[in-house]
Queue: 4 jobs
Job 1
Amino acid sequence: MEVDKGQVIIYLQPQNSAAEAAVALPQNDMRRVNLPSCTSITESIHRDLGETTPKIMALVDSISLDLRQAPRNPSSGYVFGSDEASCDVLLDRNNRQGISRMSFAVNFNWTSNKLIIECLAKSGIYLEEGPRSTQPKCKEMRWLNPAITYRVTQGVVLFQFRQVDRNTHEQRRYPVNVQA
């Protein structure tokens, strides 16, 4: 799918084979995009700092949440889980991976220009802040700081969030609110 980066809210990049399988589910076709892998981005930064060894930029199928594909229920945000009837992004079809029917939701607060993740699973989700986080299970709503790299785990599925820097886009490109 071709992505208008001015419409992107967040990218979710798979970090394990279970997440890659989730991205490949047919129900997620409209949200699937090809992005450079997180390690490729880090490697390109090193090249910019003067390293001379060329690195190959690997592309990875990822999930893109953008304004052209509104969530089923705008007040809940984009819901992730294993229930096809209520989730915007399917993480598993048969709950074989330990995925709750509704695991978590990602929403954008238009007033503060910040992303919010809300745990919907009774068992909680793991929300890691940074590469070596030892955070306990998250069972509530959390604001996502754009300066921090987050990884979310539910069941065996692990994604890394790649946030869009709102300061680099013109605010007029975004609607005042997502309305049903």
Note: Residues 5-173 form a domain with the Tumour Suppressor Smad4 fold (CATH 2.60.200.20).
Job 2
Amino acid sequence: MSEDDVKPIYRYGVALLIIHPSMDSDEISHTLGQIGIDPYMMHTAGKVTRTPKGTEIGIATNTRWNAVYEFHDDERRFFEVVTQMVDKLHTHFKDFFRQIVLDGGRVELVVNLPGKHHNGSSMAPETLGKMADMLVTLGVEVFPKSNRFDD
């Protein structure tokens, strides 16, 4: 089998990011934890902020909470994964996310792509509509020359 015959493995990540001027990050964790969404990193406005490794970096000016998921797939389908996440989030947290945004916060789904392989996907209008209904923003980040998703 030649190198051209080997099917590539596509690596990507999806992060749920919540930023709020004052909400307690434990409230976000409790709410999203009801369906098994746990934080990768979180801090609450006005409290000491630490890196994921525990290094203190100062007092938080706002609340930040995120969950991060990494995928290795043999198909270019990252927006299918996002669609599954949006369906779940829309079913359980539409009003919660809308309130965060109406309070001056932001809710964002971010697709993270390594930059060394061609990768692409499309999102259906229905998914975009559900995101708009929740006031959730879509972000895409490309990490050129990244080995972040390598085994």
Note: The chain has three helices and seven strands.
Job 3
Amino acid sequence: MNRRQTTPAALVAEGASKAYADLVALAPLDLSIASGQRVALVGHNGSGKSTFLRLATGLLDLTAGEIRVVGHPVGSAEARAATAFVPDSPVLYDDLSVREHLAYIASLHGVDASEEQVDELIAVVGLAHRADDLPARFSRGLRQKAAIAVGLVRPFELLDPADHARQLEAVSGASQRLRGRVARAIFRTDCAVLNFAGLTTP
């Protein structure tokens, strides 16, 4: 008898925690995010939201518990290949233009992106006029736009934008049509999106 094959969840955390000596940055957390789900971690400053995002991308090591991305241990080559992380403070190459960034990242992930496709994505984030410039010379807002394009040019099962609202705001200078295309690219139905939102005390 054939058993129905199930697709692994985009992300599963079981007892995931992080501590620095006596300081608990993240208490044990259990979480499962299915493909297509959009999940926001909501909490006050210091509640562990950003810590968990960095654990989920493999940027921090777990103290205890485990995290799996599409069935693979976080930090493994398979998990990293399935995760697109768009950091709040983008880290970009000093000697590559925006266009060269996208072409390079696409090639690293086996994406056969044509010059027209790369230029279209650059236009979508509102950087068509700066496509051949170095992001090292950009303002913070322009660097965030470049980071969004870099995050979207590659295939992913889990999108982890460190500050989703701010990064969507980074394309506010583009037309409404272009902003809509960026949002549709981010909110694909075949991937999961993990984000966080802070709380302020009245």
Note: Residues 1-5 have pLDDT under 50 and may be disordered.
Job 4
Amino acid sequence: MGATKESEINKMSEIEPENNTSFYRKLANVKSEIGTISKDSTNPFYKSAYFDINQLLSHVEPLLHKNSLICLQPIEDGCVVTKIIDINTGERVISTICLGEYVDPQKLGSAITYYRRYGLQSLLALQAEDDDGNKAKDPKDKPWLNEGTKEYKNAVKHLLGSGTIAEVEKEYKLSKEVKEKLTTL
């Protein structure tokens, strides 16, 4: 992130000291009302549950609105920017996650959705297990991905969708030959 962009974000996120008490109180009210968000979606490749962005927004937005707050998530300068803004005062908190370089629009869309979800989770400090981000594993514990197996077919399906080879490598050890075949899909 360049100095100009960073300073613009810092200016936008400044909160006037005399006003911040009510803004932070509103955020605290929202956080106290959120409770537990159940995970209703499943990532078949990683066999894990998560709550999708639509469920997260449908749970959080009414609580924000009740407290005169609004959530906006525009893409600005190649970054997903999550903003929670006080409708009455304009005070705000901001989280920014910059996107990588994506040629495939489907992979870009998946990254945007993922970053929107985690940007909002981060701003509100929601407690959630990193299910589809795939917990770090000891590489020695990962199984080998072999051609002709159900797991290989799932990996191919994942890659033809919006998945990346890096995501497959988080889950499996790949031989040079298997990796070569998967990267040429």
Note: The chain has a mean pLDDT of 80.
